[in-house]
Design goal:
This protein has about 375 residues and is α/β, with parallel strands linked by helices. The chain folds into 2 domains: about 200 residues, Glycogen Phosphorylase B (Rossmann fold); about 170 residues, Glycogen Phosphorylase B (Rossmann fold). Helices cover about 45% and strands about 15% of the residues. The two termini are about 20 Å apart.
């Protein structure tokens, strides 16, 4: 049994990274290891979310006061407790967590989250900065990005690097000239077709057929593109958007829907729990996913596991690994909204979901949690 600590920047929201960190912690506990999670900042409400129940969560910033951003950056500048943890192994999930772990006397692995913001073009970097802490990182990167890139490449050397997709493995090779192993974000067993979804639809005022998107609703995920696509569809259907969204971006989406004449058919329902999400996937005609160059994208796989076909971009990124055109959805020409709209309409009009439900579900079996658990634990324990 090894003492293992998983390090990430903050726990203040429930996104893809947080879900992966929690899942890895549970897997390593299941394999018999002593596991803790350390974040520079911990929000109590987020730490009580279902994914994190039963896990040992630590706040690594040593200061007992201050905001999320204050604690996060204070930890980076030495106000942290990481030396006290004394693990046998540290798994880092970001560049800042690698930085914080540099003085820890233990073996270190890096779970690579692709396209770190310091490598983004300036415009994309600003779009990525969709909250206060990211804006601070953006302005710091204007001066420090060249230095941070050098440090990043130096610290990744001689570590086991874990990629979350084939796309990220290629990027790791190109950026660091390093090999990596793939550990896909796992598909939880809860995601399977459900027939009893009437109460969930009633709760959110969904009365007829609808298309769905879900996840973190932020500008860099391009939900605004989906509003434009939705406004061009030539049939009466609702568009349901599930996930946390800031007030400014919400107003922007509503204004776009108003301009397109579809505001009354747009439903921004906020965060839903896993059980409700399963029912929404099961009831939806199609799932639409517009995030460009997405490293992986777990929510489309969850949708397919519930029998819902997907439309995403054919941009040689994550969705290319699981969207099989004509079998479980379609891939549209990169960033061509008219082609995306055409693919969506084809799935809806052909009643694709009803005809191919079982095939759609079976197409994502390899991402199921049990299979990915074995691959991840073997990679950690064997160090290769």
């Amino acid at each position: 049994m090894a003492k293992i600590i998983l390090l990430y920047d903050y726990l203040s929201e429930i996104g893809g990274v947080e879900r992966v960190v929690a899942t890895h912690a549970k897997w390593l506990k299941r394999a018999g290891h002593e596991v803790s999670l350390a974040f520079n900042y911990v929000d109590k409400e987020a730490s009580n979310y279902g994914f994190f129940r039963g896990l040992d969560i630590k706040e690594s910033c040593s200061l007992k006061f201050g905001s999320e951003s204050f604690k996060m950056y204070s930890a980076l500048f030495g106000f942290n407790k990481v030396k006290e943890y004394r693990p046998d192994l540290a798994i880092c999930y970001s560049f800042p967590s690698v930085f914080i772990s540099k003085n820890m006397k233990c073996k270190k692995y890096f779970y690579y989250l692709p396209m770190e913001f310091i490598y983004f073009p300036l415009k994309k970097r600003w779009e990525w900065a969709n909250d206060g802490k990211r804006k601070m990182a953006f302005f710091g990167s204007l001066f420090l990005a060249p230095i941070l890139k050098i440090m990043d490449k130096k610290w990744i050397k001689n570590k086991l690097v874990i990629a979350n997709s084939e796309f990220t493995r290629r990027e790791i090779k190109e950026r660091y000239n390093a090999d990596s192993v793939i550990s896909y974000p796992p598909l939880n067993s809860i995601f399977k077709p459900q027939a009893d979804y009437g109460r969930t639809l009633e709760k959110y005022g969904i009365k007829g057929k609808f298309i769905l998107t879900a996840g973190r609703i932020v500008p860099d995920k391009k939900t605004d593109w989906l509003i434009e696509v939705f406004s061009k569809l030539d049939r009466e259907i609702d568009f349901v958007i599930a996930g946390e969204i800031g007030e400014n971006y919400k107003k922007r989406l509503e204004e776009l829907a108003k301009q397109g004449g579809v505001l009354e058919r747009l439903k921004l329902i906020g965060i839903v729990n896993q059980e409700e999400l399963v029912k929404l996937y099961s009831a939806s005609e199609i799932f639409v996913f517009a995030s460009p160059k997405e490293a992986f994208g777990l929510v489309p796989i969850e949708a397919m596991a519930c029998g819902c076909p997907v439309v995403a971009w054919n941009d040689n990124a994550g969705p290319n690994e699981y969207v099989i055109p004509g079998l479980n959805g379609y891939l549209a020409k990169p960033y061509d909204l008219n082609d995306f709209k055409g693919k969506a309409e084809e799935l809806i009009k052909s009643n694709f979901k009803k005809k191919n439900k079982r095939k759609i579900v079976n197409s994502v079996k390899k991402f199921r949690e049990e299979k990915q658990y074995k691959l991840f634990v073997e990679s950690i324990e064997n160090g290769n």
